[in-house]
Amino acid sequence: MAENAGSIELKDNTVIVVLGASGDLAKKKTHRNQFLPNDIKIIGYARTKMDHEEYIRRVKSYIKTPTKEMEDQLETFVGLCSYISGQYDQDESFINLRKHLEHVEGDRKEQNRVFYMALPPSVFIPVSEHLKRNCYPKKGITRLIVEKPFGKDLDSSRKLQKALEPNWSEDEVFRIDHYLGKEMVKNILILRFANEFFGATWNRNHISNVQVSFKEPFGTEGRGGYFDEFGIIRDVMQNHLLQVLTLLAMERPISFSAEDIRDEKVRVLRGIEAIEPKDVIIGQYKESPDGYKPGYKQDDTVPKDSRCPTFCALACYIKNERWDGVPFILKAGKALNEQKTEIRIQFKDVTSAIFKNRPRNELVVRVQPNESIYIKMNSKLPGLSMQTVATELDLTYRRRFSDLKIPEAYESLILDALKGDHSNFVRDDELDASWRIFTPLLHYLDDNKEIIPMEYPYGRQSHDITKMSVFKFD
Ligand code: NDP
Ligand code: BG6
Question: Where is the Glucose-6-phosphate dehydrogenase C-terminal domain (predicted)?
Fold first, then answer.
C-alpha cells in the first residue's frame, strides 16, 4: 500500500486514467478550465477500438470553445491525452495499460495514478481487481474514483465494498456523487450554519416540509440498457437527492474536515426510517401527445414489458428531535417538461388572527439551471393601505456574482480527489446507511410484479403526475 495515500496533493507528476472513456459520462462531463496541473497526463481506456486521432477528435467535440483563447487551451489539453483500448476482464489488456502508463510516465521516480471508473457498475469489481493486480505502481500514490450507483441494494453495495477492501484502502477510494460538487449543494452547510436566522428556525417547530426535486426534459435516450436495470430511484434518488437531503437535515459538524462532516451525515441517515410503499408514487413516461417524443418502452434497449420507474415521488421521515413529523419529499423524473433541480423549505403558516390566507414563507435553493436562492415572504404593498403582498428576497447568482465562474461539479470533485480531500465523497458507512433506507422499498417494487408504474406523457409537469395519484404531496 502506498504511504500517506490519504491527503497528499497530487500535482504535475500524475496520470489520470479514465476507464469507460468512450461513454456518455465522459462525453457530457468533460471540461477544460485550466484548473488541472499543467503537466498532468490523461489516458482514456475502453473496449471501443479507436486510434489516437479519432479519440482526440471525440474529446474535442465534447468541449465547447467559443473563443480563440479557448481553442488554444483545448489544443494544449488534447496534447495531454492519449487512448488505449482493452477489455475489462483480461489481464493482458491491463498489462497493456500498464505499459502505456509507463510509456507516458517516462522516467518519473514516482508513479502517481488516479483511476476513474466511468463505467457501468456491473464491471466495477473486475476492473478494480485488474487495476490492483496489473497497474498499481510500486512507488507513488494511487487513487480509485468510483462512480455511482454503488450497488443495487444493501447486499450488493456491501459486496462491492468487500471486493474493494482487500485491494484499496478507504483513503484511496473516492466514491463520487457529482451532486456533492454542485455549487448550490456545497452552499447548503454555509447557508444553514453561517446564518443565525436560518439556524434558529431550522426545525420541526417552524418548518412544515422539505422538498428536493429533480426534473429532466429528456428520456433515457441511448442509456436504456443501463437505466432499465436501475430505474430512477437507484439512478438519482438513493444517491444525489438523498445526499442533498442529508446536508439539509444533519446537525452542525464540529469542523469542515471530511470526517467530521461525514460523521454527521451518517448520524442523520441512521435516523431516517425505511421508506414505506404507501408514501411512494412511481411513473413511467409514454410517447408525447404530439407523437414526436418516444415513450420509454419504445427505446430498443428497453424490454417491452418493463416496469422500470422513470418518475418517483416519495416522502421520508427522520426520527429525531429536530425533524420528528416533518416530511422530506423527494421527486425525480425523466422526460418531464423542464430541466430543474430545486430545494424548497416550506415554513409553517403564521398565526392567522390578523392575517388571513397569507402564503407561507418558503426558502428556495435553485441548484440548476440559473443558480439562485430566494425567500418567498409577505410584505406591505407600498402605498396608503395595509394591503399585504407576497414577494421575494432574491439572490440570483447570475446578477449578484456575474463576474465569477461557477465550476462544474466534476471539475471541482476531480480537483478534490487530486488534493486528497474526501469531504465531498461518500464514505463506506454512509452507503450502508443510505441503502438501508431504500432497500425494502426497492425489493418491494422489484418483487411485486403487479405493481405497474403510472403512465405519464413525455413532457408532463411533475406536479400533474403527483396529482394523478391518490397520495398527495403538493
Ligand atoms: P455508458 O453506458 O456510456 O458506459 C460507459 C462505457 O462503458 C461505454 O462507453 C462502454 O465502453 C462501456 N460499457 C457500456 N456498457 C457496458 C457493459 N455492459 N459492460 C462493459 N462495459 C460497458 O455509461 P455512462 O458514461 O453514462 O456512466 C458511467 C458511470 O457514470 C455510471 O456508473 C453512471 O451511473 C455514472 N454517471 C453517469 C452520468 C451521465 O450523465 N451519463 C452522470 C453521473 C454519473 P466500451 O464499450 O468502449 O468499453
Ligand atoms: C446521473 C444519472 O447520475 O445524473 C443521469 O445517471 C442523470 O441519469 C444525471 O441524467 C444528472 O446529472 P446533472 O448534473 O445533469 O443534473
Answer: 189-461
